[in-house]
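Forum: Protein Structure Q&A
Topic: Joint prediction for protein chains with partners

I've read a bunch of threads here and the consensus seems to be that you should model interacting components together rather than docking separate models afterwards. I'd like to see that in practice. Below is the full input, 410 residues plus whatever partners are listed. Could one of the regulars post the assembled result?
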Amino acid sequence: MKNISRKTVDRALIYIRTLDHLIKEKRYLVSSKDLALITGISDVQIRKDISNFGKVGRPRIGYKTAELNKTLKGFVLQENVVHVALFGVGHLGTAMLSYPAFNEDNIKLVAAFEKDKSKIGKKINGVKVYSVETAPKIIKRTHADLGIIAVPASHSQEVADIMVLSGLKGIVNFAPASISVPKSVSVKDIDFTIELLSLFCNNLQ
Amino acid sequence: MKNISRKTVDRALIYIRTLDHLIKEKRYLVSSKDLALITGISDVQIRKDISNFGKVGRPRIGYKTAELNKTLKGFVLQENVVHVALFGVGHLGTAMLSYPAFNEDNIKLVAAFEKDKSKIGKKINGVKVYSVETAPKIIKRTHADLGIIAVPASHSQEVADIMVLSGLKGIVNFAPASISVPKSVSVKDIDFTIELLSLFCNNLQ
DNA sequence: TCTCAATCGTTCTAAATTTCACGATTAGAC
DNA sequence: GTCTAATCGTGAAATTTAGAACGATTGAGA
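Posted by a regular:
Agreed with the consensus. Here's the joint model:
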């Protein structure tokens, strides 16, 4: 099997999202040019990405939406449902618990953890809120794969340590601070401030 | 002046965030190796990035935190305060309005827009909620530079069109759908589902 | 049947980015 | 004052990524 680059996988996830949408609209065929118009990714890039997963297109016709979607999902998702644990049930954490798209996709929030005792024991959108101390036990029981840090930056490292200890293999970190984790754990940082400033600095001046 | 790449600018924002933190801790000196340990970016990369902005380090010593911070900010932020308009005051939008880091940084949420009439006219965390129809007028009056899409995917294109019409030059799009905008407007997509699946696909299998 | 236009898939080229290697500089120890 | 170890800054090599060019394939229409 080919070695498929991280960027290709990331774009494949965009193609899958787009195809899901097209299929819902009863669209049966789509060309790389169509996908380029929708996604903003060049048609050449799209064809090259797709060719990593086999020859599923037909010249003059394009791709069958359902077939392409199935092929892409077969490679990148493999029917997996990703189990995710959430740390921090403040405004952002609550927004994640209420995020409607997770239900349609291959993502399941299996547990939430919080320091504030008044929130512990409650259920939000079907997800139970536990004390942070119980995280290792609960995470093993629920087979969580990934974790989300939605606590203040002042506690993000502390929470990251617990996540690593609990055996999580990937972390989405919303706290505006770098965290240190072993190489075996991968981290994706999303700092709202930096995202906005990056847009501003890179394009407006 | 040198042509500084987008990736360098993005990393510079991480250095600035880190330096802000170190300065708050009364740390006066930092080496590229120290910064590498904290941020996870290689020390060579850090030195090369910084060298874009001049020779501010001293061999054997490292960088003065305050001086380096000032230099970096001078290049990438230039004392600007970025004015941001928010579209959608649901769970995620409310989380953005309550996001504490914006106040410390160079970001000011100047207005929020919402369809739901029961929310219009209220003030959340000092930010007034307006009807979406009034966006062009309010955005011009408040001199907003960037916008945030925090509405459901079903309405994201509609909202994006209004943002473009209102003169916003950059958009952070949290809706899980691609939006089409003129080339002059830059877009940063943040799809929580894709972020999680990307972590999972790229590292766990 | 033949031609044509659209589209895929692939190879080669170019650009961007990171990593490596190493010289230059400096503070401190002796 | 000299040596040493740490650190910066930079030019070159290597890697990754995107882009361009182009042949191959296919369905439709004359």
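The CA atoms of residues 19 and 65 of chain B lie 6 Å apart.
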